[in-house]
Amino acid sequence: MAQAETTDNRTMLMLAYRALGTSQMLLGEIAGCRELTEKGLALYDVREHGKLALRYGQDPGVTNGLYLGWVLWFLGYPDQAVARAREALALAQQIEHPLSIAFAMNYLATIHNYRGEFAVARDLADRAEQVATEHKLQLWLAMCQIQRGWAQLGVGEREAGAAELAEGVAGWTRTGAKAGISFFQAAAIWGLWRAGRHDEAMRKVDEVEEFMRRSGERFFEAEVLRLRGELLLSTGMTSGTRTAEDCFRRGLEVARRQQARAWELRLALSQARLLVLRGSPGEARALVSGVYEWFTEGLETADLREARALLGRLG
After folding, report:
1. Residue 39 contacts residue 17 (beta carbons within 8 Å)
2. Which of 153, 154, 149, 195 is nearest to 169 (CA)?
3. What pLDDT, on a 0 to 100 scale, did the predictor assign at position 178?
């Protein structure tokens, strides 16, 4: 970054912004990633930079746009997240770079899965798979399986979805890729939980928490804490309930520190359901409404609809 800034080399700066932005996202510095990827996009001109993917394997306009899309979702802007990712996909198609197209379709599918738009996500995964198969892009073939399995789980295909997702995670790992493992494992944990395989899911939680401790990867820390709490609640034991509450509390602290409103909302919903069971509906309502009322877009996405429904029931 320092060298790029000293020489005022726009190409180096774009690549540096993308690399540093990605690192910041993985470390849980979500707002920092947004700032850097926006700077990278501001420097990009397809007429000047549209062939860079042939040299570097990725197009900085596409990658900066996709990571910006992801972090906008984390930060609580689900509509802007989709818009940015769609722009990145359109750019990938314009420059006719297969890896960038598969990359963009998968990252856009991720955002749609987050939003609960599972049919859209599955269609994108299927289209990305065609590109990845034709061009033998093994990493992205694995990501297609992850997205498709996630979407299947979302529409109730529990066993098939969990199997597809697990195979995708295994395929990603076989490539030797390490970055983002907490995301993929969190998806696998969610899949096992939805399939009723709670013991396996809890073992995965232990594994991913150990990975996060070793690697410093933190962008899914809040969600992993939430999933641990939900799994503990599923045991029905009093001790599990107490520990689950601690998981939700810690997860909320992480989400707030990272300014990750999307994770904060999910954790607030999990904590609120527990508060209702304990006979504290007023506290539950205050917790959820405090997060829900912050949002100004994406009000028909799954998590926000769930929050609105809960608030309606609590009066």
Report:
1. yes
2. 149
3. 83
**What is the rounded distance in angstroms from the CA atom of residue 22 to the CA atom of residue 40?**
12
Predicted confidence band at 235 (pLDDT cuts at 50, 70, 90)? confident
Q: Which residues contact 249 (CB under 8 A, 6 or more apart)?
A: 271
Q: How far is CA 37 from CA 96, 186, 227, in A?
A: 22, 24, 29
**Are 254 and 219 in contact, with CB atoms under 8 Å apart?**
no
Instruction: Round to whole Å and give the CA distance between 159 and 131.
Output: 26
CA distances from 281 to 27, 239, 313 (A): 35, 21, 10
Q: Going by C-beta distance under 8 Å and a sequence separation of 6 or more, which residues neighbour residue 60? A: 11, 14, 15, 17, 18, 40, 44, 49, 52
Domains defined for the chain, CATH in brackets: 2-115+185-314 (1.25.40)
**Other residues' Cβ atoms within 10 Å of the Cβ of residue 226:** 28
User: Is the distance from CB of 256 to CB of 241 less than 8 angstroms?
Assistant: no
Give the distance, in angstroms, between the CA of residue 298 and the centroid of all CA atoms in the same chain: 16
Q: Tell me if 41 sits within 8 A of 68, measured CB to CB.
A: yes
In one-letter notation, the amino acid at residue 283 is: E
Quick one: tokens of 143? Answer: 């990501």
Exposure of 299 in the CB half-sphere (CA atoms within 13 A): 8
Q: Which residues of 66-84 are buried (b: 16+ CB within 10 A; e: fewer)?
A: bbbbbbbbbbbbbbbbbeb
The CA distance from 224 to 43, in Å, is 35
Matching residue, tokens 């990750």: 260
pTM reported for the whole predicted model: 0.94
Average pLDDT, the chain: 94
Which distant-in-sequence residues (6+ apart) come within 8 Å of 163 by Cβ? 149
The tokens of 169 are what? 């995670």
Mean pLDDT of 73-97: 98
Q: Which residues contact 107 (CB under 8 A, 6 or more apart)?
A: 66, 69, 70, 85, 88
